[in-house]
Design brief:
The complex is a heterodimer of chains A (579) and B (384). Chain A is of the alpha/beta class. Chain A has 20 helices and 24 strands. Classes of the chains: A alpha/beta (579), B alpha/beta (384).
Chain lengths: 579, 384
């Protein structure tokens, strides 16, 4: 084959060409702005009550670094498998990917990573402060007490958790039904907490007297006993109704709860929904009665939707008046309600009786779940107490010894991740108190906020790398969308509706490895360097140097053009003016 | 085998058969169909080539400059504003002696916005060091694109293959598309004389002080001066394989003509009909189709037009403050010959206006009946 054109020899080709290196031309002298690797805060992590470093966790899983992913979660939350099942995932609501196609399935991915930790029995290397010889008494082995014990043990404290029931877990073990949260998941995560050195003493109800007796033996007290007693409706015939928490408790004890025929559940919170959905599984025809509008229910929206799908009939705007027994059945008298403007503080509609409209509901059983309160009347510090710090997820009183309240006792949102947040905040507050005194607590906590809060990061508190991250929350506009293509969100397998009727089997399946890979690939990794190498590839001066896994800017040649910052898909770089 | 193709796709087919390795372009009407087809060929594997999506024509040219410097065969296409945006890099690519081939679809410049036929865009780039070849129909634009690679890679200068907006780019005609084997015989794989090589790094295009710059520019001109010889040889080989030939200029009825009309692009087809009609009425009229504009075929112009009585130049372009650009060039070519004919310049068909047989006939009669040009440029068909 001819390669050299026939006339080539005749044509002169005089162009400038040099074999001398151009390194002598230090283009860095042209620069007046410089690029900088500066990681920022992903919106998901700022919205997570536990402050998990989600963007980084998804990156690590996508790189197959599961051990690192698990350790990164566990720095902030001892319950990934639990939260991956029962959390209301505010992270997904704010996910930047929602503006592009669909939010990343963060909730399902958390569960996947949590389950890997359990399945593979990973030996974890979690950072721990040296033991400081201080012991903390924790009341209640529910999620907040367990979290407090877990985080305190990370910070070098030894902890005794006192639990009234025969097994630890609180709402996780005795409340949330198995179809949402299987026993073995709870047991495995509690086992891991125990391994950090936390001691759990069951069958030991804690009373004021008990506390008086033991307080000299401890350096601090944390009360996280939760809301164990149901609120009363204060209507005639109330004694004929069954208690929702008790009902769930019996189910969890696997005691037979005969529930066929029509059943009414009164309430609109998560407990009411759990009860209603459990009844469906026991074969009952279930009606949920709520005095306000359906959209004002305090239960998480997903849960209400599931109840709807599973055939729970929801009667909104009916308030119970009285219960009467009639021929082995019950007649529930209901007052029709109507809306009357909005409540200014809670964003829900105010309701008032709608004239004399009364309806009667004939049922085989009535279960009440309208809310709960602490089962022991603790001397909870009033908001007027100047000695007490109200920190958001817990209260701190510098008594002798210091006293903290947390969990549902102090949280506005009564959820598992908020309980974790409570345990974490309490552990940090106490540690700051012992090291720097009461006055330092607020400022030091503020320095560990994820983004602008309210979530706190234990990794930051313990001096981890997350400390240097910019609190700026990466917005949709900060993402360079040229590097992403629309991909459908991966949904986990779920049990068909008809198969849920007679079974307490878990509804959702954990992601498979392939599903998790596919879904983590969708994550923008907002604000986090995931080593995509765009900065290095696009640098016209070859001024991005790769040293091991670390990228650095060679300022001798970086002329400050900003291409690296522009081409960073995820806003992990900034341009700074030269001083 | 003949296919009914629009002019744009005749170009795309030639680029495919030329086994171009890097295509980079930014869409602009009326060029878009060319690279649309190529992007499909790149993505579906029909072509073993990279298609680089860029954010502007400036970047498209920069991308093919990079690729060509690395020693691969490249292609881009543009029109009008896009070509204007490339301007800086047109100078760069020729002075770097890179054999880039570009299809340029003649389109009017804005404002007012106009996407139609007008030659001012490509003619405004006449001093950039690019070879320019103007085509008449689908077959010619296909053939010229293949020839352009041979020419460019031999003289180390970039080539612009120019075609009329819509009249050629969007008109369907039967075009003979040869087998790959035949094309391979005509156009061997690109063997660059100089190419960047990471295993033997060197720099190109850096500082050229006064003691060498002028020589470098002279060197480009020397290469340009050899283009007509080389083009003739390339065409000879092309004719051997494909049986078609065009020439740098084509003369029609010129031998005994008293008036010769100089035309370019698709207007040449219209003019063929006009000439033949006028001939049948006994008029001694001829036509010179100008295919190569850079380098300007001065010798051929002198040879064919030097002794005719009158020359009428049809310009679908205009240089403001001067005259039609082809007319200027033809005057310049003739002025140093003795007893050269008067050159009548006519401006017509700007911004997509039709150049009809009636207009060309009018130009002929006007020229025949005037002893001297009434003006440097006479605008035909202006509305009152």
């Amino acid at each position: 084959m001819t390669t050299e054109p026939k006339h080539a020899e005749k044509i002169s080709l005089f162009i400038s060409r040099s074999n001398i290196s151009t390194e002598i031309n230090k283009t860095g002298t042209w620069r007046f702005v410089r690029p900088k690797y500066h990681e920022k805060t992903a919106p998901c992590s700022a919205a997570c009550p536990a402050g998990e470093d989600i963007a980084r966790i998804e990156m690590l899983s996508n790189q197959g670094r599961y051990q690192d992913a698990v350790e990164t979660i566990l720095l902030e939350n001892p319950f990934p498998s639990v939260c991956g099942r029962v959390c209301f995932h505010p992270c997904e609501t704010v996910c930047n990917r929602a503006g592009f196609d669909d939010p990343v399935a963060i909730h399902a991915l958390e569960r996947f990573i949590g389950d890997i930790a359990i399945r593979d029995e990973l030996t974890l290397k979690l950072k721990k402060f040296p033991e400081n010889g201080k012991t903390v008494c924790i009341v209640g082995a529910g999620p907040s007490g367990l979290a407090a014990g877990y985080f305190l043990s990370q910070l070098g404290y030894s902890c005794d958790i006192y639990e009234a029931r025969s097994e630890p877990g609180g709402i996780l073990r005795w409340g949330i039904p198995r179809y949402r949260l299987p026993d073995d998941v709870v047991a495995s995560e509690i086992e891991r907490i125990k391994k950090t050195g936390v001691k759990i003493i069951c069958n030991t109800p804690v009373t004021q007297n008990f506390l008086q007796d033991v307080k000299d033996r401890y350096h601090a007290l944390f009360i996280g006993c939760g809301h164990g007693r149901s609120l009363k409706m204060n209507i005639p015939g109330e004694n004929l109704a069954f208690n929702g928490l008790e009902f769930l408790n019996l189910l969890r004890k696997r005691k037979a709860v005969p529930s066929n025929g029509t059943t009414a559940v009164i309430g609109g919170g998560n407990t009411a929904i759990d009860v209603a959905r459990s009844l469906v599984r026991l074969g009952a025809t279930t009606t949920l009665v709520y005095r306000r509008r359906k959209q004002d229910m305090p239960a998480f929206k997903d849960e209400v939707e599931m109840a709807d799908k599973e055939g729970v009939r929801i009667m909104e705007l009916y308030s119970p008046l009285e219960i009467n027994e009639d021929d082995g059945e019950y007649v529930l008298s209901l007052q029709r309600m109507k809306t009357s403007g909005m409540e200014t503080d809670r964003g829900r509609a105010r309701v008032v009786p709608d004239g004399q409209a009364i309806q009667h509901l004939r049922v085989r059983k009535i279960i009440v779940a309208i809310g709960a309160e602490p089962s022991t009347p603790w001397q909870f510090p009033s908001h007027k107490n100047a000695e007490t710090l109200y920190l958001g997820h817990c209260t701190f009183t510098a008594s002798e010894p210091p006293l903290l309240f947390g969990g549902d006792l102090t949280n506005t949102i009564k959820s598992v991740p908020d309980a974790v947040a409570s345990g974490k905040q309490a552990a940090m507050a106490l540690d700051i108190f012992f090291k720097q005194g009461r006055h330092a607590i607020t400022d030091r906590l503020n320095s560990c906020l994820v983004g602008n809060g309210p979530a706190l990061s234990m990794e930051c508190y313990m001096g981890g790398k997350r400390w240097v991250r910019n609190p700026h929350i990466v917005s949709y506009d900060d993402i360079n969308l040229d590097y992403f293509s629309q991909t459908p969100r991966v949904e986990s397998e779920s049990l068909a509706i008809n198969k849920r009727m007679n079974s307490f089997d878990e509804i959702e399946a954990t992601f498979t490895l392939n599903q998790a890979m596919e879904e983590t690939r969708r994550c923008f990794n907002c604000g986090i360097c995931n080593a995509c190498d765009n900065c290095r590839i696009f640098c016209p001066e070859i001024a991005v140097i790769l040293q091991g896994a670390k990228r650095q800017i060679n300022l001798d040649y970086c002329k400050g053009c900003g291409i690296c910052v522009f081409e960073c898909p995820r806003s992990a770089m900034d341009l700074e003016e030269e001083l | 085998m003949k296919h009914v193709l629009e002019g744009s796709h005749a170009v795309s087919e030639a680029v495919r058969l030329a086994k171009v390795q890097v295509v980079s372009a930014y869409p602009i009407t009326p060029q878009t169909h060319i690279v649309e087809a190529l992007s499909e060929y790149c993505s579906d594997g029909t072509m073993n080539a990279r298609f680089l999506c860029v954010e502007s024509e400036h970047s498209a040219m920069a991308a093919v400059i990079g690729a060509s410097s690395a020693g691969v065969r490249t292609f881009t296409a543009t029109s009008s504003q896009g070509l204007a945006l490339m301007h800086e890099l047109l100078h760069w690519s020729s002075a770097a002696r890179l054999p880039i081939v570009m299809a340029e679809v003649n389109r009017a410049l804005a404002p007012g916005w106009n996407i139609w036929m007008d030659q001012t865009d490509s003619l405004a780039q006449r001093d950039t060091g690019w070879i320019q070849l103007y085509c008449e129909d689908g077959q010619e634009v296909f053939d010229t694109t293949l020839q352009a690679y041979r020419l460019a890679e031999t003289v180390n200068l970039p080539v612009m293959v120019v075609l009329d907006a819509f009249f050629l780019s969007h008109t369907f005609e039967p075009v003979d598309i040869p087998d790959q084997e035949l094309v391979d015989r005509f156009l061997p794989p690109f063997s660059p004389r100089i190419a960047l090589d990471t295993s033997d790094p060197f720099a190109m295009g850096q500082m050229a002080p006064p003691n060498v710059y002028m020589e470098m520019r002279h060197d480009i001109q020397k290469a340009m001066e050899q283009v007509s010889d080389i083009f003739a040889k390339v065409e000879e080989e092309f004719t051997e394989i494909f049986g078609r030939t065009y020439g740098m200029v084509e003369k029609v009825y010129c031998n005994d003509a008293q008036v010769i009309m100089v035309v370019t692009g698709t207007a040449a087809s219209t003019c063929r009909k006009v000439i033949s009609d006028l001939r049948s009425q006994g008029e001694k009229v001829g036509m010179l189709k100008l295919k190569m504009f850079r380098p300007f075929p001065t010798d051929l112009i002198r040879e064919h037009l030097g002794h005719v009585q009158k020359v009428a130049v049809v310009d679908r372009n205009f240089s403001f403050g001067a005259s039609g650009i082809f007319a200027q060039e033809i005057r310049a070519a003739l002025c140093n010959t003795l007893k050269h004919p008067p050159v009548f310049g006519y401006i017509t068909g700007l911004g997509g206006r039709d150049v009809t047989p009636e207009i060309l006939t009018e130009i002929y009669w006007k020229t025949k009946h005037s002893s001297a040009p009434e003006d440097e440029s006479v605008w035909i068909g202006l509305l009152d």
